[in-house]
Each structure stands twice: as C-alpha cells, then as structure tokens.
Amino acid sequence: MSAAELFVVSFLTLTVAGTVGLQTLPGLYRGDPLSWSDAAFTATSAVCVTGLIVVDTATHFTFAGQFYLLVLIQLGGLGMLTLTSFVITALGGRPSLRSETIATGVGRTMPSISSRQLMIDVTRFTLALEAFGAIALYSIWAPRLGWREAMWPSLFHSVSAFCNAGFSTNTDSLVSFQGSPATVAVVSLLIVCGGLGFVTMEELWQVFGRRTNASIKRLSVHSRLVVWTSAALLVIGWGLFAVFEWRGVLGGMSLADKLSNAWFMSVTSRTAGFNSVDYAAASDSTNFLTVLFMMIGGSPGSTAGGMKTTTFALIGLLAWSRLRARPTVIFARRSIPEETIQRAVGLFVIVTGFVLTGIFVVASIEDFIGHRGEFLPTLFEVVSAFNTVGLSMGVTGELSTASRWVLVFLMFVGRTGPLSLASALVVRLSRTGKFRLAYEDVNVG
Hints:
The chain is an all-alpha fold. It contains 18 helices and two strands.
C-alpha cells in the first residue's frame, strides 16, 4: 500500500474495531446498548476526534464505557501509526521510513529534525501536557466536585481537550463552568497546544526550551506561518465573538466571564467542540462566524481538522501577491514553492466541494422524509462533522439515520484528509503515460 492508503486503512480499521467494541463489550452502558448505526457514529466521532454525539456521554455510558471512548480518542488523536512507531522504537527496532513519514509528517519542512526524535518527543509532549491538564483541572474542580469525584472528569477532559475531541463527561459540556476563568484557561491551553501541530511544537521546544548544540536556532517558515496565523485568528475571533454576544449569550456574565468565554468561543470554534455557551441561543452572526472558523480548523500534523491554518494563510498570501503583481508568494523573507501553493488551492477546492455536497445531501434527505428544519443548524452540523470540530446547535439527535451515516462518512473523510483519500483511491498511471498536452488559454473573470 502507498503511504496515503496505509494512513486511511489504519483509521478505518480503528473505526471498525471501535464500532464492534461498542456493540460487543459488556458493561459499557447504563441503559440500552447503542444500535449498530449509533455505535458506528459514536466510534467514528471518537476516533476522528470530532465530538458529535447521539446519546449523552455522561448519562448513557458507565465508567467502563467512558474509558473505552477515551482510548479511542487517544488513539485517534495521536494516530495509530505514531503510537505503533514509538512502541517499535522503544523496543529497540526501527519503523519503516514510510511509517515514520506518515506518523510524523516531517517531510521537507523540517530537514534538521529526525523522524525518530520527533516521534519520541510527540509522545512526551502528549503525556506531559495531558498530565499537566489533568492536575490543573483537578486542583480547580476538586473543591467543587469533591476530591475523589473530580479525578476522572479531570483526566477525561484533559485528554479530550488536547486531542481536540470535544467529548465531555458533563451533560452540558463546559456550560456549568462558564463562570470559572481558570477552567476556561486550562482547557484553552490544551486545545491550542493540540491544534498547533507536533512539528511546530517540536520546533518551539528546540528553539525556546532545549538549549543544546543540536537544537535548531530559528523557526521554519512552516512554524512561523502556523504561529502567526493561529494567533491572528484567535485574537480576531475573540474580539468578534465578544462584540456579537456581549448582550446575547454572554449578557448575564461578569466582565471577566464575558472576556474569558468570548476567548473560549474563539479557541474551540476551530478545533475542539467543547462549548461553554449554548450555540442554539447564539445569534446568526456568531454561528456563521463559527462555521467559517470551523472550515479553517487547526494546523497540519495536529489533532485538529479543517482545511488547516497554513492552507488558509497561503491562499490569502496568494491573493495578496497577485494584487501586488508579484510572481511568487512570499512570507518571512522566503518564497513559497509553486507546488505548495497549488496543493493549498486544490485542498481548498476539495474541502469546499465535500462540505457543499454534504450540506446538499443532508438537507435533501431531511426534506424528503419530512424533517423540515432551519437551514443554519444543518449547515452548522455538516461543517462541524467534516472539519471534526464537534460543536452542535442541538440537532444531532434529531437527524435521520441516513443523515447520520452521511455525517459518519464526512467525519472519516475530514479526519483522514481529502488529499490522502484521493491519493489512496487514485488510479496509478504508468511512466509511459505521463506527458503534457499543448497549451491553450481560457478567459477568466
């Protein structure tokens, strides 16, 4: 199998195994077990770290069921190949070059960092940040929930936040903690770290944390683009959400709570799926801005979905360079290869095509069976599923079984990546069949 095929098959295998486990393992439910379709939806949502649910995780699953979901979230967040490669390395073996490339996504952006070291650091970063998050949340929640009762929710939310999954052991997600700025700050930090991408975290660690002769001295263009784009989106979103909802869903809060929850809306809208406010009660401008942020998503090589921050930034830089009549796209005093720009444009087209098709199919199915509802919630749900965000306006459980299967497909495609799936399904051409035809121009605009 090619690298892309191996990547897709690994997630498909984990999803199928998760579905079978939800149907066959005893002691996972407090009530009736999930049907096969609901089990497939839940397993796909966990493995693809989406967070959309058809049953309440807090009340429908036992501790064993929640633990099983957390295992699926952790495996899906890190990626099966990353964990497998690390185990092989720890046992003294060496994973194949192909597995290393898929697991780490190093490629040409970080030639100075070995895949082996990156895989080790990925696992170290993950365990360290999740442990920090669990301890921090426990110290905040223990006085409120109880010293024993706060242990499992703290660990569950820490792993779910870092993996950008959005699953919660609370029925209302984090709405009951909207008055706790400390909770918002810790969960936000975990979400941002998980959404930056392992390559960027490794570079940041080498530049600012690991002071050795082997460390790199400057961030690559990739990491600079990730950091600047992520920071800009967070700040812009913070301001816009605060303006849109200052007298809306944030209206009854104190000044500190308004600012912290507006910040959290900016953080969670691109990747995570946790919510501290009711999006069904939010304004249309807020929900549409959330849709736009969900489409952008996190950064490459992270636990987040979406078209990725670098894709969004490169398209913007391409438009700016054309407006200034520049032949190349420039960022941080470097020219971006034309091949990379074309991949970004292609990815944008593919993502938009999948989302629009998904919206049309789900809306058509619901209209056909007589479940006529508002268009914005349907749009919101489809975009959230494909970009593996997990936010919802409360219509997931009301969708028909056929529409849920559409969302299952969109979650899987959104997690494995449109280009990876296209590469896995493409018909390989022989070398003798590769040639270029004569040019003929077409009028545009």
